[in-house]
Structures are given as structure tokens and as C-alpha cells.
Predict the 3D structure of the following.
Amino acid sequence: MTAPPRLARAAPPSPAPTGTRAGRILVADDERSLRELLAIVLRREGYDVMLAENGTMALAALARGAVDLLISDIKMPDMSGVEVLRNAKQIDPGLPAIMMTAYASTETAVEAMRLGACDYLVKPFDVDELKLKVREKLESRHLRQENLLLKRALNEPHAFAGIIGRSSPMLAVFELVESIARTTSTVLITGESGTGKELVARALHRHSLRRERPFVAINCGALTETLLESELFGHMKGSFTGADVTKKGLIEGAEGGTIFLDEIGETTPMMQVKLLRVLQERRFRRVGGLEEIEADIRVVAATNQDLSKLVAEGRFREDLFYRINVIPIHLPPLRDRREDIPLIAEHFLAKYRQAMGKSIETISGEAMTRLASYHWPGNIRELENVIERAVALEKTPTILADSLPGHLRGLGPAAPAQKAADVSALPEMGFDLEQHVQSVERRYLAQALERAGGVQVRAAELLGMSFRSFRYFAKKYNLK
């Protein structure tokens, strides 16, 4: 049994770092009581806390989404905290970490620090000391992310290699891309359709040492197995009907550069075997050929499917999954980065205003409000289509709400989970407006809390509120 932290004195919650979101912290420790204590302490500070009872669960949580700080015990039953840290740094090289142990050891401390742990605590430790260290690490990480944007502010405000965003999830993606771009590691980009996976792949190539060589993209789901094999590996003259000449494939065309395999989850079992050989040996044969050709390429793959689920169902090779999932990058859906919607909408307005030769200067407040509150099942691709349509239809210098599609104006079927509040005519005898407003307010708070899985920090973000305001209203309406 490890000794608990020392609750030396009761200190008032310190505010979250000025100008930042509270921060998402992953706590990994096999002792349940300590996990729960840290969750209570850190959530009182306004942080979004994820808990893992062992190293395996910690790595699974890291692979699912962005984390701002790792707090891990050194000694856990399935793998050590040092091993968790080593794997975490492969996922996010810039991730700060605080390691905890009841068994102080110079050897483990040196190894943890060598791997990039920014602090080391021996149990029992003072909770106020931990809170101070957490705040320092998160502020430092936020400053690094801010600097990443500032370096490009003159040429690409709020953009990184063509990717637009200033939300915390996207800042984490920018930081990760910059950290791994100059490596040769294989990258797997995941996210819903329309979130910009190819843009991230191109950003990786643009910032890599291979940027002077080709970037070649292919959609694996758009071609049959035979056509995909010929496109990727090329073919010899006479190898099949219609093969009148010898043709180089896209892998040869990407020599020295980057090949982007989009929708890799759509490949057949046979094609998966051939891709595995390329990744393992960096060699391949053209269709109908005997000569082995070396492939000096970096592979970036992408999918909108859950490959681990496909592996469990026997529809995707487990060995190929581990080969492509060396460094995972997950792109959040647009509904989880709403503060980026005005930036992206203005970007597409400028693009289509120029393309169509129109003098539309801005988007009205009402139209922007509707854009920001919509669910966007089609993500950025759908937003681009909406702005293109609005620019084409608008006859004034400002895009008005009337130029948006009907479902954004409440005239047609709304996207799932985006039901408008019931609005009806004022009753003849009148009614209690304050009570009605409170009823609607409570309903939205409850829906946000449910969608956020009970995490108040996340629910507050969904409603555009501060954490402290949300906590006040949650207490007022007795929401658990």
C-alpha cells in the first residue's frame, strides 16, 4: 500500500491559466484511492481529468485523443510508468509528464528524466505542491503552442501549413506535426470524413527533410484491388490485358518523398499483405515483374474507420495495423472545435469571393451564429460547400442568414443532436418568462453534461461558458 499525498492545508482553487482552456490531464496509477483523490483535487482546479488503472489503459487513452499532461506512477503491474512515458513520447513528443513513486530510485529518476519527464514526485507528497507543478507544466505547454502560431502569424495567421485553427485540440495537432515531421516514422491519421486528413499529411511532408521530393496521394477505397495494385506498384508490359507498356507505379513516383494512403481501411486482405511487405522491407515488385525494387519513401496512412475494431473483426491485419500506427494523429470533428468555425468560414469566403469575382466582405452576425451552432456531420468539407453556396446566392456585400441552407435556418431537418428550443406564440393569458427561460437553460446544461460524459469542463466548452459559470449553474439546477 503506497502512502497517500499529504493534505497539508486547505487551499482555495487556483484559477486556470489565463487565456487557456483548463487542460486535459491523464492520471495513471494502479491504486484506486489515489486516482480518485487526484481526480477530485484536479477537477476542483477546473481540469479535465482522465483516469487509467494501469499502463495499458493509459496508452489507450493517449491514442484516443489529445492530452496536455501525463501524471503516472512508476510502479504498475502490467508495465512501468517509465515504459508508459516512452510510448507516450512516441504519440506526442512534446507531452509534459510528472512521475510519482513510493520507491525513490536514482536509476528510475534518471531514466524518467532522460525520456522527457519534466518532474518527479516521491510519495507521500504535498497536494499543493502537485497543483503548483501541474499549473506550471500546463502554462509552459500552452506557451509553446502559442509560439508555434506566432512564428507563422505574419504569413499565415491562425494557420499551420494551410490548416486553419486556434482551438486547443488543433494547437496540439500543430505541435505534434512539427515535432514528428523531420522523422521517418510511419504516421496514421484518423478522424471523421471531411476533417482534413490529407492537409495534415501534406503538412508533415512540407515540414520534413523530404519536402523537395514528391508528395503522392492515393485513395485506397476508390479503386478495385487490381487497379490499386497496378497504380501503387506499376506493371510490366504484357502482364495483363491492356498492359501495352511497362508503367511505373506511385511508389516509384514518390521515391525519396512521401506517399499518402488515404482510406487504408478499405484495402482487401491481399493488398494488406503486399503493403505490409513494403513497410517491413521497403521493397516491392511491379505486377508481372520479377525484379525487386527498393522503396525510399515515408508512408502516411489515413482512415475514418476504427482500425482496432476491424482488427478484432478479422477485417484488417493486426501486423499491418501496428506497422502503420507508429505515430497516431487524431483530428477532432468540427463540432469539437467550434471556436475555429468563424476562422474557417472567413477563409472560404475569401476563397470563393475571389473565384466568383464578387464583392462580399463579411458574414453577418446572425449567419455566423447559425454556422457556429450547427452540428456539421460533414465537417470542414460540408462547411466549405455551405460557404460556396452562400457566396453564389448572396446579392449584398454581407452573407445573410437567408443565403444559408434551410436546415441551418431551422426550415428543414436539422442535424442529429441539434434540436432547437421550442418557441411558440405568447399565450393569451401570458406566462412566467423567467421560469420558462430557466427551464430551457437547465435542458441545455443537462444535454451538454450528458454529451460530455459528465465532464463539466467539456460541457462548459460545448456551451461557450467558463468552467466556473457552468459549475455555478449545474449546482443551481442540481445537475449531477
About this structure: Residues 181-332 form a domain with the Rossmann fold fold (CATH 3.40.50.300). The longest helix spans residues 127-150. The chain has four domains: 24-148, 181-332, 335-408, 433-476. The radius of gyration is 26 Å.
